Amino acid sequence: MDELKRLRGLMKEETFKEHGFTNKMRENILNEVHSKPSSKAFSFNIKPIFAPLMSFVFVAACLSLFVYFGGTQLGLFDGNNASAPFYQYEAKDRPESLGAEFKFLTKAPFEVAEVTTKTSEDPSGEIELVNLTGKERQIIKLTFQSIEPGTNLTLYQEEVKVGQSKGSYYESEGPEKVNRLIWIEGDTIKYEMEYLPGGSDITLSKKDMIKMAESFR
Fold it and tell me: Which end of the chain lies in a sparser environment, N or C, as judged by fewer CB atoms within 10 Å?
C-alpha cells in the first residue's frame, strides 16, 4: 500500500511531459493509478452456482437413503441375497414313512413336484432321507436321525442358531451353489438340509436356509 501511495504522488500531469504520451494514454494511466480498488472486481456470483449444487446434493442424499432402506428391507445389505419366494408346504405332504418323532418343513423355495424317500445307516444309527424335487430340477435333501443324548457331534462349518438349537452352515461358491444346514434339536434329533438350485435361477442365502429350518413343524 505504501508503494501505491508513492506511485500516486509521482503520477502528476507533468510526469508525462516530453515522454511521447498522448492525452488519451495519460488519462488512462492516471485513472488507473488514482482509482480506488473495487472489491467487486474480484467477487464471484456465487448464488447461481451454489443453489443448483445444493439441489443436486439434496436429491442425491434422498436417493441414497431410499436405495439403502429399500435394500435393507429386501435383505440386499446384510451380506446375503434378497429372500427367495417361499411356498407353503402342507402337513398332508409329509411322507408317511417318516417317523412321528421328527418334524417336517412347512416352507419350500419352490413348488414341490416329486417326493422320494429312503433309509440308510451310519455309526450313530438309522437315517431317514427325503428328497423334494421341483419342476426345474431344484432339490431339497432332508436327513432325519435320532441320536443318543450327549452324542458328541462335531459341527465343522459356520456356527448358527436355528431357533434355540445349535447348528452349522455351509455354502459353496460358483454357479452350482450348494447350501447345507445341520442342527441338533433337543439333544436327541439331528436334522440336515441341503439345497441344490438345479436348472432354476433361485439361489438361497444363509437367512433363507434358517427360515426354512425354523418352519419345521
Answer: N
Angstrom distance (rounded) from CA 41 to CA 58: 32
Residues 76-118: pLDDT tens digits?
444 444 456 788 887 678 999 999 999 999 999 999 999 999 9
CA–CA dist 127, 119 (Å, integer): 6
Residue 39, C-alpha cell as written in the block = 472489491
pTM of the predicted structure, to 2 decimals: 0.62
Please list the ranges in the chain whose pLDDT falls under 50: 39-44, 46, 71-82
What distance in Å separates the CA atoms of residue 129 and residue 144, rounded to the nearest whole number? Answer: 6
For residue 113, how many other CB atoms are within 10 A of its CB? 12
For residue 187, give Cα distances in angstroms to 12, 15, 125, 133: 108, 109, 15, 29
Distance CA 37, CA 41 (A): 8
Let me know if 55 is exposed, middle or buried by CB neighbors in 10 A (0-12, 13-18, 19+).
exposed
Could you give the dihedral angle defined by the CA atoms of residues 202, 207, 211 and 213, in that order, rounded to the nearest 10 degrees? Answer: 90
